[in-house]
Amino acid sequence: MRTSRPWGWQTPRTREGADGPAPGRTPEALVLLCSVAAAAAAVAQPLVLGRTLDLLLRDGDAGRWLPLSAGLLLGELLLDSLTSLFTGRCNAAWTASIRSRALRGLLRAVPDSARAHPPGDVGTRLTLNAADAGGAPAARAALGASLITPLGALVALAFVDMWVAACVLTGLPALALVLRTFARDTGASVAAYQRTQSLIASRLLEALEGAATIGAAGTGERERARILAPLAELTAQGRHMWALHGRALGRSNVLVPLLTLAATAVGGLRLAAGELSVGDLLAACRYAQLAAGIGGAATLLGALVRAREARRRTQELERMPPLAYGSRRLPPDGPGELELRGVRVVREGRQVLRADLLRVPGGSTVAVVGRSGAGKSVLAAVAGRLIDPDEGYVLLDGVPLDRLTREALRTEVAYAFERPVLGEGTVAEAIATGSRQPAPEQVRQAARAAGADSFVRRLPHGYDTPLPQAPLSGGEHQRLGLARAFAHAGRLLVMDDATSSLDTATEHEVNLALRRSVRFGTRLVVAHRPSVADRADLVLWLEEGEVSAVGTHRELWHTAGYRAVFGAGGTGADDVTPGEGPARRHEPEEVRP
Q1: How far, in whole angstroms, is CA 537 from its chain's centroid?
Q2: 525, 366 in Cβ contact below 8 A?
Q3: Are strands 413-417 and 492-496 parallel, antiparallel or unpaired?
């Protein structure tokens, strides 16, 4: 539930829901309680000290007022310490909650919308921005308490002497104007600074990921210049922020002594006239300082402005549109028939995929081929509902994918990617992670099917080896990703260029194991090699986002455009790729564009 609180903040109440538990009001309330109590002790001190001084000067014995003064002083020190302790806990709790919700929003979002945020930008939002945003509740509580001190001091000053109070009151509007101007000018500057921070982080991460390419090309200096190019802008923005902060503090630091001096002068005149005692003058001067201390709220106000802008950035991740699910389940023992009806996907005004009346028979293996940008990965994403089409429907065993529950969809549709993310657990945990929990023997069977069992057994602790301690090549990393997909294979298994790092012999063994050792179902394979297309039951040929033809590899090989997809020439049927096994055929009408 969102609220209209200042700074775009969410009401901090403990709750469980889609966004997870929030820390609740308790941490902020503790900060506020200790801050207010410390402020009350600070306001009471001048009056008690003044009374103590008058009694000492008059009678030489302050009685209970002296211990009370010492108690207030020690109490303020203790309360300030507790405020710091609870502030740290409050900041930590809220920062963790904000990071968790932003990360959860990112992970549950439609992949296409998540790609709008580069990894470096996401990292900045989840670290620096989340920490700034997490400090808002404690800063808001401290700001409220910081306003209690000058207001309470002003009331107490009026009780001591109205003339001194009137003198201080005339200068407070100027201090309030300083704070208002600071808050107004700082917001835009902070937002620009955070955006530039994110840009530098994104470029740095891109360079780290491509370090080998940069080193081989000898473009290190150029990359360094590209990464640091926004640094001048960041420096200017930082200087501008500190200039605004310094200007606000400077003006308040000029006004505060002036007000204190004026209050002291008026109090001195009142003392000379016999209207004030020495203790009253001491209290009046101290209250004048506390009342003018409203200018010190600039630091807390600056923290709140930074938190507001940072919270907006983390909420962009938190509020990313999630993929909605239905309530239906698949019919039992379905073969995994996949059907696309009137499917159309548009990106930035350009059609990237169009498929209508396309039916993939259950249990078949279909290779998806095409040039770069033809829409192969888009089709793979639509087939397993990583994204929804802008028009049309995708059905699995007659049920639209968007009507399925999350459990039904992710249990029966598995993916294998070119660059799988394995996590940080053991090898066995990486393979077993998924919608269902396979038994240890099933994990090993999936690894054997993916050609991974032999190298896994050579690791220091076999399947119990932590991934960070397992030196994996690109092909071995990809085979573990295949093993995970095989362990969780359901009615539909989508392989998006998942064998690109395998040598031809290993790829052939994986394809054989896929037919013999992996759960029966439909296979949709994004292929770049003619060998993969030849071993498929059927080939789906895409050109510029549309289905150009459907047939077996050998049938389509007679077409020059199809051969050109694989960089092959020739003109006839005899030009079939040498060394390939026999093609497997279905009737052409089983898959129709």
Answers
A1: 42
A2: yes
A3: parallel
pLDDT digits (tens, 9 = 90+) for 369-418: 999 889 999 999 999 998 899 999 999 999 999 999 999 998 999 998 88
Q: Which residue has the tokens 């300030």?
A: 80
Residues of the chain with pLDDT under 70: 1-22, 168, 171-172, 174-176, 178-180, 182-185, 187-188, 245, 247-257, 289, 291-298, 517, 568-593
Q: How far apart are CA 30 and CA 85, in angstroms?
A: 10
pLDDT digit string, tens, across residues 97-146: 999 999 998 888 877 777 778 888 888 899 889 999 998 888 888 887 77
Assign 374 to helix, strand or coil. Answer: coil
Q: What is the pLDDT of residue 331?
A: 92
Q: Identify the CA nearest to 287 among candidates 258, 270, 253, 264.
A: 264
Report d(CA 515, CA 593) in Å as an integer.
25
Tokens standing for residue 171: 């200068």
Measured CA to CA, the distance from residue 242 to residue 255 in angstroms comes to 20
Extract the tokens encoding 106. Answer: 């990112």
Q: Which helix (H) or strand (E) holds 551?
A: strand 546-551
472-478 own/partner pairs: CB under 8 Å, 24+ apart: 474/501, 475/501, 475/502, 475/503, 475/506, 476/452, 477/419, 477/420, 477/422, 477/501, 478/418, 478/419, 478/420, 478/502
Integer Cα distance of 172 and 447 in angstroms: 74
* DSSP line for 302-371: HHHHHHHHHHHHHHHHHTSPBPP--SB-PPTT----EEEEEEEEEETTEEEEEE-SEEE-TT-EEEEEES
Residue 520 neighbours by CB under 8 Å, 6+ apart = 363
Q: How many CB atoms lie within 10 A of CB 357?
A: 13
